[in-house]
Amino acid sequence: MKQKLKEMARSFLVPLLYRYPPTCLAPERLYLYFHYLIECKEIPGDIVEIGCAMGGTAAIARNMTRHLDINKRYLCYDTFDGFVEQQFSSDVGLGTPAQDRHMFSGSSRDLVAKILKRHKAEDVTLIQGDITTIPDSTLPESCSVVLLDVDLAEPTYQALKRFWPRLAPGGVILVDDCPESTSWKARVGYRRFCQEMGLAEQYRHGMGILTGVATH
Length: 216
Ligand SMILES: C[S@@+](CC[C@H](N)C(=O)[O-])C[C@H]1O[C@@H](n2cnc3c(N)ncnc32)[C@H](O)[C@@H]1O
Prior knowledge:
Layout: H1 2-12, H2 14-17, H3 27-39, E1 46-50, H4 56-67, E2 74-78, H5 85-92, H6 109-118, E3 125-128, E4 143-148, H7 153-163, E5 167-175, H8 186-197, E6 203-204, E7 207-211
Parallel strand pairs: 1-2, 1-4, 2-3, 4-5
Antiparallel strand pairs: 5-7, 6-7
Helix pairs in contact: 3-4, 7-8
The structure holds S-adenosylmethionine.
């Protein structure tokens, strides 16, 4: 009940609280993501953001792609209620502070849709679910740029397994939160995937990068 009331209040206050798009990406990573969105203009396939939080990055990105005539679908996946218990506890075992458990809890698909509408990005598609178990039927056939931003080791690894085969040749997957020293364990999932697939690990501005090749 208390949660519901909080959600209603936030929804009502969208024009005030979310006057500016609420992005969680560090500026240098936001730059890198936008750089690849532009560079991959001619690569066919959807733009995908896995872990979109309040939709701030999606809102800015969608406005930019519209200005640049990049006419691709923009798909966002999220639980819209923060971390999955088991995935988070497993990372606490690797050193993630337990106090971060509810960092992204208490959002909702409706609230994010309102924020996107407020920022003229209502054509972004929001898909709710755990990226490790969401049905294959909700996944795109082909993607050109994927921002993978779920912070934790297991969903990062599982999402890479699901999206790598869908990445168009020349397309790019960017994994956020991959610097050597951070309490988030996305790098553990990225590294595990690269090792299993025999792919070189490549890092820029704290993001792990994978580039699509014709043979995968
Ligand atoms: C750091 S935030 C994303 C920030 C967003 N990309 C931005 O730039 O503003 C991490 C998001 O990942 C989502 N998330 C975490 N685990 C997930 C999972 N297993 N499946 C789907 N979403 C998940 C959380 O709900 C949270 O909204």
